[in-house]
Amino acid sequence: MLTILMAILIPFIAAILIPFIYKFIPRINIGWFVLVVPILLFIGLVRYVPSVAAGETYIKTISWIPSAGINFTTYLDGLSLIFGLLITGVGSLVILYSIYYLSDRESLGHFYVYLLLFMGAMLGVVFSDNMMVLYVFWELTSISSFLLIAFWYHRKQSRYGAQKSLLITVTGGLAMLIGFVMLYAMTGTFSIRENIAAIGDFTNHPLFVAALVLVLLGAFTKSAQFPFHIWLPDAMEAPTPVSAYLHSATMVKAGIYLVARFTTIFGGEEVWFYAVSGIGLLTLFWGSLNAIRQTDLKALLAYSTISQLGLVMSLFGLGSVALNAGVSSDSILYTQATFAALFHLINHSTFKGALFMVVGIVDHNVGTRDVRRLGGLMSLMPVTFSIALIGSFSMAGLPPFNGFLSKEMFFEAMLMMRDFDVLSIRSLGTIFPIVAWIASIFTFVYSMIIVFQTFFGEHQPDRLDRKAHEASKGMLIAPSVLAVLVVGIFFFPNIIGNYLLRPAMAAIYPTFLDVDQLTPHISAWHGLKNNMPLLMTIGVVIIGFLLYISLHRWRSLYSVGPMLWNLDTLYNWSLKQMESSSTAITNYYMSGHLRDYLTYIFGFFLFAVGGSLVLLGGFSFDVSNDAPILINEVILVLVMAIAAVCIVFVPSRVTAILLNGVLGYSIALFFVIFRAPDLALTQIVVETVTTALFLLCFYFLPELKREKSVRSSKILNGIIAISAGVLVTVIALSVQGNKLFDSISIYFENAYELTGGKNIVNTILGDFRAFDTMLEVVVLFIAGIGVYTLIKLKARKGERDVED
Amino acid sequence: METLITILVGILVTVAVYLLLSRSLIRIIVGSAVLSHAVHLLLMVMGGLKKGSAPLLDENATSYTDPLPQALILTAIVISFAVTAFLLVLGYRTYKETGLDDSKELRGFTDE
Asked: Per-residue pLDDT averaged across A564-568, rounded?
């Protein structure tokens, strides 16, 4: 049987192999090879369904960085299985679709590598138990999404959309990472399961709410919740298969997955309820309201996806109430909201996937997605039309499609908020069903726009780029399968309920032992009595219909007041501000002057080393161990000091060079005094050669000019130089004042026994540290080559000089 | 003695830093040479001065001066020689190619 680890790794392995296959077997469309991967994985995962439905979970740990608590732990339970099936199932259909959608001229190798990369990363997200591993895969989905949005990178809008999505989702991901680290700081483990078990003791911890908010930020940015939704419409620049897969069926649902998974950890907190359900409802409302004004079908679907994600999110928020209230027969009612959320999640993937593919077909065949130019395609594209009808009506919440079932359950869950007194928001509770209802009306309206403005009305062939015709059979397979599912789930919802949703519910509510109560029986007909959800649906249809036929009258409302507020403008403005101010700051200090950089370096040295010296009070001064001073030494010191100071002030370069020589020879004398004969010899030789070199070069170099720099900068240089000198002196004195360690040189006094040499310095260089000496010779050698080339290298005749 | 040398090191560092901060290439090169002198002396001081005879085993002395700083300085002298030589030739070549020896003008800035 396919192990979960293999399921994560196979797409990555395939992604490595694909470029080779693409190169060596160019005659067959590479998509057929890729298609094998998700189908195999899907079959492999389906085989887990019966055992998972029976309550089994699969966990496997591979040690990775155990010292940091990071292990590659794969965990399969009901919740991750749903997502795994969605990823591989929709993935198979999308790849099948894209084989016909993308022409052979596109760089298919890249496309499928990115897609496989995404698939592996996404499976990694849902199957990882370790939060750090989850985070890595999480960011990998952002990166592969970036690559896929920018697939047509020659388009400016593609690049813009890719950057926008990356910036927003990665920012959220970083917030989430901090949240994970906070959880680790509280519970001491990165494992989600162990966190679930341990978190109960930490709900009053000061970090608890902070971690909650940060994790939610990650989920909200990924799932395009208000106000982070702005990246999703721009992500529609990606090829349509990608939009169908990443930006509607799977990646945007990673945030939903995260919320579902962490409900068990954070769900008991009120903040969680308010944030998740509040933001969810707001997103639902805002997305559906904005979808109506879109004229591009894909943009419309993007806003509709935003709104549907908000719907699922808000349901998860309601479902968390059950954890807040604790286990009881009352609170179990609220778990139905979670049940509805999971159910709608699956339904949304089916109908929205189908709709995206339909829009892709329309775009592919007639060359536009603009509803103002489309119309009357019903008779020309009957199959496409049928699929669009099924998808849209399901989205609108009409029977006999699966959207109807989950919409009813959604209303029911929202209505529960009326008599909801757990969190003392009695009067506020009524807002929930009202907002949900209004948003559903808008949902109905835009669903109608998709069907009627595209397929009904007047056909305008002169406004289309290409003549409309039915799509090829291959292209229709994938959306047809999804459409069949849309209808099939309506008639047999309890197969999904029992096999997929029940174990997922058990995973989200581990404290509720009676799983049967968690999974209500899904039925389309609840009877007329007390059937408020049905009344709401009827209301949605009537008012939605009225709104749709009067659309041209109230559409102008979109250009009034608050509707003009645009988060995109804010995003663009802040991006521009960020870029210009960072450029300004960088240009300000990166002046290109060597002097400035050295000033920074010395300034930092003074600040950091001097500062810590003062802070730690490390200064101490001890002369008791000093050797006695002789008069000749004093003279030598004076000579050196005067020579050094004179170098600064002499106007002639030859004097400066000779004074430097004076310094060098005096040091050689000091070496003699300090009992270092080898050093003295070397110093004399080196100093002679250096001075000779200086004088040689001096012949070619210009006369020292008086420094042209202004007085103030000279004074600054002086201050820096003097403070650096003082600081070095102070530190050196302090070091001599506190000897922390004994000398290790005793070891070398054994030199004769160890090496056979009597000059200890020589044995250190030639034997104890011979390797250092060898490398030193290498440095000398390199410098020699450098010197030689700089002198000898000349441009050949006829060639332009290197510098020009 | 150590204190005196340490103060000398401080003076050398001051001069070296001032030279490094100037604009003329030759001053910068001289500055780096002076800085290496300062560091050699500093290393020497750190090991203690005149604590015994030269570190040659034949001397039959009771104690030797610390040989480790000497070995380090020997390496440092050679390396700093290599660096100085390279810098010099680099400055020479730069001047021959561009006619400039001012780090600021080389960067393309004509005035402050």
From this structure: 74
* DSSP symbol at A1: -
Residue A299 CB contacts under 8 Å (≥ 6 apart), including other chains: A233, A236
What is the pTM (predicted TM-score) of this model?
Answer: 0.77
| Pairwise CA distance, residues A220 & A172, whole Å | 8
Closest Cα in chain A, distance from residue B111 (Å) = 9
SS3 A286: helix
pLDDT digits over A567-578, tens only?
888 888 999 999
A562 pLDDT more than 80: no
* Residue A454 to residue A456: CA distance in whole angstroms: 6
Treating both helix axes as pointing N-terminal to C-terminal, what angle do A270-292 and A297-319 enclose, rounded to 10 degrees? 160
Q: Which residues pair with A759 in a beta bridge?
A: B56
Q: Are A646 and A659 in contact (CB under 8 A)?
A: yes
**Is B111 a domain residue?**
no
Specify the DSSP class assigned to residue A471: P
**Tens digits of residue pLDDT in B21-63:** 888 888 888 999 999 999 999 998 887 777 777 788 776 777 7
Q: What pLDDT score does A804 carry?
A: 40
* CATH value at residue B40: 1.10.287
The CA-atom distances, in angstroms, between B19 and each of A591, A647, A798, B49, B81 are 20, 9, 40, 29, 18
Q: Which of residues 592-611 of A touch B (CB under 8 A)?
A: 592-595, 598-599, 602
Alpha-carbon dihedral A451, A454, A459, A464, rounded to 10 degrees:
-170
CA proximity to A443, closest of A313, A543, A307, A349: A307
Q: Which of residues 735-794 of A touch B (CB under 8 A)?
A: 735-736, 743-745, 748-749, 751-752, 758-761, 764-765, 769, 772-773, 776, 779-780, 782-784, 786-787, 790-791
Q: Is residue B88 part of a domain?
A: yes
The answer to whether position B112 is within a domain reads no
Q: Is the ipTM of this complex over 0.85?
A: yes
Is the alpha carbon torsion for A663, A665, A670, A674 positive or negative? Answer: positive
CA distance A305 to A313: 12
Tell me how many domains chain B contains.
Answer: 1
